[in-house]
Automatic annotation (TrEMBL):
This is Prostaglandin reductase 2. It comes from Spizella passerina (Chipping sparrow). Keywords: Cytoplasm, Lipid metabolism, NADP, Oxidoreductase. Coiled coil: none annotated. Belongs to the NADP-dependent oxidoreductase L4BD family. Residues 167-260 form the Alcohol dehydrogenase-like C-terminal domain. GO terms for cellular component: cytoplasm. The gene is Ptgr2. Its main location: cytoplasm. The lineage of its organism: Eukaryota, Metazoa, Chordata, Craniata, Vertebrata.
Length: 339
């Protein structure tokens, strides 16, 4: 079975993705595995906010290629090798790729796959799509490369989209890296409770209730030093208005803007931009793919924290892509395909 971008969707229409944007087809794959290739069974697929950009004719990013109509969708995935003609991969090996096709089975170029070591995550393979994969790397390297976090500096970090895959990790990593206070922003009381009780956040704000600016002032009386921005929009404007001189924005994502026809990253409103410039607040786009030379050491650090219980991991499994874009997930959103 394969998932494709539906050729019957209305061109030029922006909005929230729905099931009708995709279609499921039954197909067959080649009988023969060529030299350098492997036949794999798909175990897990990752769904991530950036995929919404790939549904546009112009993704707004040089590194993202748009999906074409009737093309098999792809993204992060994990599978097991069932047959191999590749010198470094054998039957039974677990492998992953950033460009895994949304198929139950596939024949792939072995050089495009990375072999996984399940013992690093206590056998929880799906973690390699989240906390020990590109999501965890984004949180860790974003903080290290753009957050300017220093142990003993008494810094306060705020994380928007804090109950999402990256945000839930970023807050925990911010604390592990040296922040003295971490405050999350999420969209339900349940999410806020989980952030504080399970993820170790000091406090969390439900942005759908009450005055966010007032709550933020009360929870961050010394202002905000580091802002891990996953959402953009009005929430980010509110946080930026309370940031300190020479503070830092880690521009990870702008999920509130992905269903709109705007450039990425979207420009700040004039009043917010004025605050940013007057207070010398850095706001730089962060792309984890630019730091792949630090991947191996960073993954080992993430796996160590997971094994030590210092990094708590949550995953959600249901109507994955639609739910994620609507904020239905807590932690990483994973599609379980096979066992």
């Amino acid at each position: 079975f394969i998932y494709l971008l539906n050729s019957n969707i209305t061109l030029g229409k922006n909005g929230v993705p729905v099931a009708e944007n995709f279609r499921l087809e039954q197909s067959t794959i080649a009988d023969t595995v060529q030299a350098g290739q492997v036949r794999v069974k798909t175990l897990y697929l990752s769904v991530d906010p950036y995929m919404r950009c790939r549904m546009n004719e112009d993704t707004g990013s040089d590194y993202l290629r748009p999906w074409q109509l009737s093309e098999v969708a792809d993204g992060g995935g994990i599978g097991v090798v069932e047959e191999s003609q590749h010198h470094n991969l054998a039957k039974g090996d677990f492998v992953t790729s950033f460009t895994w096709p949304w198929q139950t089975a596939a024949i792939l170029d072995g050089d495009s796959l990375q072999k996984l070591e399940p013992q690093l995550v206590n056998g929880r393979l799906s973690y390699f799509l989240g906390a020990a994969g590109i999501t965890g790397l984004t949180a860790l390297l974003g903080i290290r490369e753009k957050g300017h976090v220093a142990t003993g500096a008494n810094q306060t970090m705020v994380v928007s989209g804090a109950a999402g895959a990256c945000g839930s990790l970023a807050g925990q990593i911010g604390r592990l890296e040296g922040c003295s206070r971490v405050v999350g922003i999420a969209g339900t009381d349940e999410k806020c409770s989980i952030l504080v009780q399970e993820m170790g956040f000091d406090a969390a704000i439900n942005y759908k209730k009450g005055d966010v600016a007032k709550q933020l002032r009360e929870l961050c009386p010394g202002g905000v030093d580091v802002y891990f921005d996953n959402v953009g929009g009005d929430i980010s404007d509110t946080v930026i208005s309370q940031m300190n001189q020479n503070s830092h924005i880690i521009l990870c994502g702008q999920i509130s803007q992905y269903n709109k026809d705007v450039p990425y990253p979207p420009p700040l409103p004039p009043d917010t931009e004025k605050i940013q410039k007057e207070r010398n607040i850095t706001r730089e786009r962060f792309l984890v793919l630019n730091y792949m030379d630090k991947q191996e050491a960073s993954v080992l650090q993430l796996c160590q924290w997971i094994q030590e219980g210092k990094l708590k991991v949550r995953t959600s499994r249901f109507t994955a892509f639609q739910s994620m874009m609507n904020g239905g997930n807590i932690g990483k959103q994973i599609v379980s395909i096979s066992k």
